[in-house]
Every structure is written in structure tokens, then in C-alpha cells.
Design a protein that fits this description.
Elements: H1 2-17, E1 30-38, E2 48-53, H2 54-59, E3 69-72, E4 78-84, H3 88-93, E5 111-120, E6 123-132, E7 136-143
Parallel strand pairs: 1-7
Antiparallel strand pairs: 1-4, 2-3, 2-5, 5-6
Length: 144
């Protein structure tokens, strides 16, 4: 009987320890629906867009080398960034931002700040977007 109880407790502990972390809180994530156009209003396909959280942007001297997300526009010039997250602790733990810095993870934030960078014809087009907590935004980036 003791072996059965011990075995049951062991298996229960093992299963609880192996459950996946609950990072699925959609209120802490942001979504960006982006269309890239030229100055004449024509959609630009196959364009790479880098997305960086505000922390990563500032910590890496405004370089795209450590972009947390990268997408390419489709043939209609559209792309979607899902699950954007500006949790500094997550960024630091995953090794995305390479900086020794003292930080306090944001716990009461009401907005997320991201930079979307497009490298096009030897120029960098940088768009700063401020999201309300959990917001989904649709916007157009015009390359001039």
C-alpha cells in the first residue's frame, strides 16, 4: 500500500513539474498587422521587417542585430507579428539582448513600445509604435 501511495505521489509530482509554463496570457502580448508601401502607394512584397522591444532597442544602441522578431512581407506587402512581448526579464533570459544591466521586470505596465525597422535601398526606415496592453494594431509603413 505504501508503495502504491509513494508511486502515485511520485507520478503526480512528475506530471505537475512537467506541465508547460503559462505564457499564454494574451493581455501581455501585442499583435501588429503591417502593410509596407512605397511613396506612390504601391505595396512592396518580400520586404524584411525587424521588430524590437523598446528595451532591446535601447540596450543595443538602436541596432537590428538583436531583433526579437523578423518577418517578410507577402506578395501583397502584408505581414503579421504575433505574440509581441516586451517583458525585459524574458528578453534577458533568452539572450536576445546582450547587455549587463540592472533591471526591474515590468509588472504594472499599461503599454508596450516596439520599433519596426525596414532596411530598403541602403536606408533604414524606423517606425516606433506604442501599443496599449494586449492591443492589436493595423498600420502602414510608407518607404519614402
Amino acid at each position: 500500500m505504501k508503495k502504491t501511495i509513494f508511486l502515485f505521489a511520485f507520478i503526480s509530482t512528475l506530471l505537475m513539474g512537467c506541465s508547460k509554463d503559462d505564457d499564454s496570457n494574451s493581455a501581455d502580448k501585442y499583435m501588429a498587422f503591417i502593410t509596407v508601401k512605397d511613396e506612390l502607394g504601391k505595396n512592396i512584397p518580400n520586404t524584411t521587417i525587424y521588430a524590437l522591444s523598446d528595451y532591446t532597442w535601447q540596450a543595443n544602441n538602436e541596432k537590428t542585430d538583436f531583433a526579437e522578431w523578423t518577418n517578410i512581407t507577402d506578395k501583397k506587402g502584408h505581414t503579421v507579428f504575433k505574440d509581441l512581448n516586451d517583458d525585459l526579464l524574458k528578453v534577458y533570459k533568452e539572450g536576445i539582448a546582450q547587455f549587463p544591466v540592472e533591471f526591474q521586470p515590468k509588472t504594472d505596465y499599461k503599454e508596450g513600445i516596439f520599433r519596426f525597422v525596414i532596411k530598403h535601398q541602403d536606408q533604414d526606415f524606423i517606425t516606433k509604435v506604442i501599443f496599449e496592453k494586449g492591443e492589436q494594431r493595423h498600420f502602414v509603413i510608407i518607404l519614402k
